[in-house]
Each structure stands twice: as structure tokens, then as C-alpha cells.
Amino acid sequence: MPRPTGRVLTLLELLQSGGTRTVAELADRLGVEGRTVRRYVDQLIDLDVPVESVRGRYGGYRLAPGYRLPPLMLSDDEALAVVLGLVAGRRAGLTTMEHTASETASAKIRRVLPKHIARRLDTLLEALAFTEQPGEFDTPDAGVLLAIADAVRHRRPVSIRYTDRDGRGSERTLHAYGIVAHSGRWYVTGKDARIGEDRTFRLDRIADARTLPGSFEAPVGPDPAQRVVTGFATAEYQHAVTLRIQGTVEQIRAHLPAGVASLEEDAPTAGEERATERWLRVELRAERLDWLPLVLASLNRPFVIERPDELRDLVVAFADRLASYARHA
User: Fold this and answer.
1) By CB distance 3.0 to 4.6 Å, which of 38, 42, 113, 185 could disulfide with 118?
2) Would you state the pLDDT for residue 1?
3) How far apart are the first and last CA of the chain?
4) Residue 265: pLDDT above 80?
5) Spatial separation of the C-alpha atoms in residues 147 and 131, rounded to whole Å
């Protein structure tokens, strides 16, 4: 027969699964009488676990947000999911400024795992491989991340202190539309109130964020993620590149995603399938051109370089090198 302490922990696990639980339901699950359930609830309250009593026909007990995290009851599968999520987050660079937070959280969970589950987890982590090395990204401050998330949810202006890539600092008022995780970094996109234009900011370059009085209406149109990738594709860089490539949208996007290039797609003519190969116009901005010849070669599709001439010269030189390598015995 379970000990009373075990039943109290089981009660906590039931309440943490969400919703309101009736006294009769809890008594049945715990194998006790209703008055015993009430006594167990009192014990949780004595431990500062915020249990609320709900009155009425469908009343009972539920957990309320507390001033600190109560003891957390996880099933074996839930514990594995949390630890694997922490590992994946570190690999992807999507952590907060507290670099050790995910490691200590993972260590705490692993320390209390049953031995057979811990062994399964260790076996999985030993067998797990990633196709890319972990990125060395600057990560945002957790307070900044949460403050901006609150501003997004309540549509309130937020004041930020921002440092651009050239090291110039500025204070801005932002109408934040959303937070986007992209290629191992956190971004916030919204309207810069001072200039009245949409901008995207890296969260790790924001030193402070404070919500301001007032509110704003979110614009119609692309969602925040689409705004971010479109902004990357049209950003001002040293080189403006225009290409025409023969192929399908899917073939081109496999090598030049939306965050890199914009694609002008003509509507299919009557009876023409979307997957039909045709000439499509591709535009992108780049600080350097030396990576593009390899990308164009990997497309394995006919293409025409409209601009710049420098890219055409690089592609010709790249083709000559490949031909030279192929002739060597």
C-alpha cells in the first residue's frame, strides 16, 4: 500500500497535468476518502505549493501560478523529452545568456532519473550524432527575451538599447510584432517608431528592454517569421545579384532558401503544373560572392547571370579549375 507521502506526491502529479480535478476523482485515483484528499491538499499548501479550491458543481482543486516553481513530477517519457530538448537547444544556439542554465537543469533532471531510464538516456546520447558542429553564437539575456515577449503579447511599445554590427549604440522604441528563432539566433521584428519602418533586431545585441505605456495594432500581411527571412534576402550588402534559373521553385529553394534569395515566380499558365520547369528570376544580396559559384554548380540547372559581371568571372574561373582538376590523371 502506498505511503501517505507517496500519495501526496501522486496528488501533485495529478494536479500538474492541468485543469480542475474533483474531490471524487482524486479520491478514486488515490484510493482514499474525500476528507483524506483535503488533508493531502493542506500538506501541499503547507509546502507552498499553490493549490486553489474551486467551488461549484464542477469544482475541486487545481494548481495556480506560485511565486516559485513547486516540485515537478515528470513521467519517464517527459523527463527524456525535456533533457533531449535541452541538448538540442544548446546545439542550435537557442539558449539564454545564462550559458550554464540548460546544463544545470539537465543535470538536476538526470540526477533524479530512475537508473534504468538514466541508462537508456546515456545510451541514446552516446549514439546521437549531429550533422553540424554546435554554433558559437552570442545569446540573448533572459530578461530581455521575456520583456519583449510580454510586449509582443500585449501589443505594447518597448524601449530597447541596441548595438548594431558596427558597434554603434542607440535607443529605439519598437512596436514588436514577434520573436523569431532563425539559424541559431533570436530575432525580434517590428516597426521602429522613430523612422516609421519595419526593422529586425538581433536579441543578443539588445542590452535593455522596457515596456512603455500605450498600445498598437499589429499589421496585416506576412507573419513575423516571413518578415525576418524576407528582410535577410533584401538587406543592403555590397553586391546585388540577379539571376535567371531554369527549374522548379522546389529545386531552386533547396539551395537558395527564402532567407537568402527572393524568387519571382510567374503564375503557371492554363494547364501548367506548379512543378513544371521554367525560367525564374532570382535576386539576392551578398557581402561576398565567392560562395555563389559552388551553389550555382550544385543546382545542376541552366542559369544566366544578369549581374554583376564579377560573379560571371568567378563562375568561369571556378569551371576552369574543375576542368583542370578533371584532366589530371
Assistant:
1) 113
2) 42
3) 79
4) no
5) 34
